[in-house]
Amino acid sequence: MKQFAVLGLGRFGSSLARTLYGLGHDVLAVDKSEDIVQDISPYVTHAIQADATDESTLRSLGLRNFDVAVISIGSSIQASIMVALIVKELGVKHVVAKAQNELHAKVLYKIGADRVVFPERDMGLRLAHNLVSSNIVDFIELSSDYSIIELVALPEWKNKTLKELNMRGKYGINIIAIKRGGEIFISPKAEEQIMDNDVLVVVGDNEDIVRLENKA
Which of helix, strand or coil describes residue 43? Predict the structure, then answer.
């Protein structure tokens, strides 16, 4: 079980805090809005009304004892940067920060953020790929070059083995898992046969992924 501090409880921060708590972890949720703190209180370990940009307040919360601090302040880039700086100085092991744009992300990385996320951009990417093809279940960009997609197996793949389909040879992608009903098969063998409604989890170069999406 890990300890998470989520600073800023907008839609992204609140959803993250609730989900982490639901997964069995300790979650400290902090926001300056009393109403937001009251709303989320039953769904996290501790909910505190405080100004996260105040260094003495953050020190009093004992943040250095947390495994991860997530800075999800969305209203002010300046406040986000200030909090990231304070949290790093307090010695939090892993700092994740939400960015509004690339310049914001560059500054966050410069001051020591371990990871920067773009929730709105990433959701837009995922929705766009889903809209392009009805077979695409999900899309995750790993980097500017590689991505993971989940797609429903095409009808012509049914009852064929992975060896017969030769996805690597035809599309340059690798199947890393197969979801079948409530089960998931990690690193499926070449002899594994594709069944109706299987969802394939594949990883590959973005250009190869696009070619596969166009077919799907």
Answer: helix
Identity of the residue numbered 86:
I
149: left (phi over 0), alpha (psi -120 to 50) or beta: beta
Give how far Cα 189 sits from Cα of 88, 159, 161, 170, 175, Å.
44, 14, 9, 18, 10
Residue among 163, 147, 122, 133 nearest 203 (CA) = 147
CA atoms in the 13 A half-sphere facing the CB of 68: 18
Classify each residue of 1-19 as buried b or exposed e, where b means 16 or more C-beta atoms within 10 Å of its C-beta. Answer: eebbbbbbbbebbbebbbe
Q: What is the pTM of this model?
A: 0.68
Residue listed under structure tokens 């100004």: 51
Compute CA 134 distance to the chain's CA centroid, rounded to the nearest angstrom: 22
Phi, psi (degrees; rounded to nearest 5) at 19: -70, -45
Helix 102-110, helix 77-89: angle, nearest 10? 20
pLDDT digits (tens, 9 = 90+) for 114-166: 999 988 778 777 767 666 667 878 888 777 788 898 999 999 999 999 999 99
